[in-house]
Amino acid sequence: MFAGGRLALIPTEEVDLGVAERQRMLSEYRRREREISPSFYAAWQPAVLFMRTGRTRAAARMLERTGVFPRPGDACLEVGFGSLGWLGELVCWGLRENDLHGIELDPVRARNAGEILSGADLRVGDAGRMPWGDGAFRLVVASTVFTSILDGAVRQVVAREITRVLAPGGALLWYDFAVNNPRNPNVRRVGRRELRALFPELRGNIRSVTLAPPLARLVAPRSWVLATLLEALPPLRTHLLAVLVKRP
Predict the structure, then answer these.
(1) How far, CA to CA in Å, does 131 sit from each of 83, 134, 158?
(2) Residue 130 falls within a domain, yes or no?
(3) Is 3 inside any structural domain?
């Protein structure tokens, strides 16, 4: 338990994610904390606000059009929620804290989220073996998670777990980048073909979104309108947004 909330640790013997991959990912989190200023991803940064607004608007529209927009009382899970992730967006969409669940590898990030959402069920552990039953969630969010997993076998394990805990008729909300960053060998893209292969039991829509972050950081502080026009050009979009539904 954490600070009177519901942040819990998954016992080590229940962890299923590869030890080497887990340690690599945690080491990368610590490196980024040392080398990247917290202000780089701060919510007040124009580029961050631009990218977040665009993805959130598109996700809400896709979920509603697919008929799976979450409602109060729907159990929702975020895999890899970081310091808050999409959990804050779900609250803005009308979900209650006790509707929210999450699993996060990094205990430091998880603690930060637990301080904000003390009523949510937030767990520290690996997504390769999640502590919830089959079909527990109407919505599962996986945002910039799989690109941080370099081991293909581990990706498959986590994808199977997401499919397992997703209720029939429930949806996976996916957001991640489909273009490699040549400056960062600690991440690897997930394209449309791999995304569909990871979740063969799910069906739905995939679309490209998000102006390439380097461009967004250059343009958004100067002109939101120009950034919006550039984002309308598919070759300049770097991420995939998907709503994939599990067959009833």
Answers:
(1) 20, 10, 13
(2) yes
(3) no
Q: What six digits make up the tokens of 193?
A: 């073909």
Count H helices and E strands in the chain, helices first: 8, 8
133-150 per-position pLDDT tens digit: 999 999 999 999 999 999
Radius of gyration over alpha carbons of the chain, in Å?
17
Question: In this structure, is residue 196 part of a structural domain?
Answer: yes
Asked if residues 241 and 175 have their Cβ atoms less than 8 Å apart, the reply is yes
DSSP strand E in 120-199: where? 121-124, 137-143, 166-177
Instruction: Let me know: does 12 contact 189? Beta carbons within 8 Å.
Output: no
Per the structure, the complete domain to which residue 61 belongs is given by 8-246
Q: What is the pLDDT of residues 22-57, one digit of tens each?
A: 888 888 888 888 888 888 888 899 999 999 999 999
Distances (CA, A) of 176 to 5, 19, 114, 149, 207: 29, 24, 24, 12, 11
pTM, two decimal places: 0.90
Element (H, E) at 180: none
Orientation of helix 19-35 relative to helix 107-116, angle to 10°: 70
Alpha-carbon distance of 175 to 152, in angstroms, equals 18
Q: Is residue 2 part of a domain?
A: no
Reading the block at residue 21, the tokens are 């991959």
Q: Let me know how long the chain is.
A: 248
Total domains in the fold of the chain: 1
Q: What is the identity of the amino acid at 197? A: A
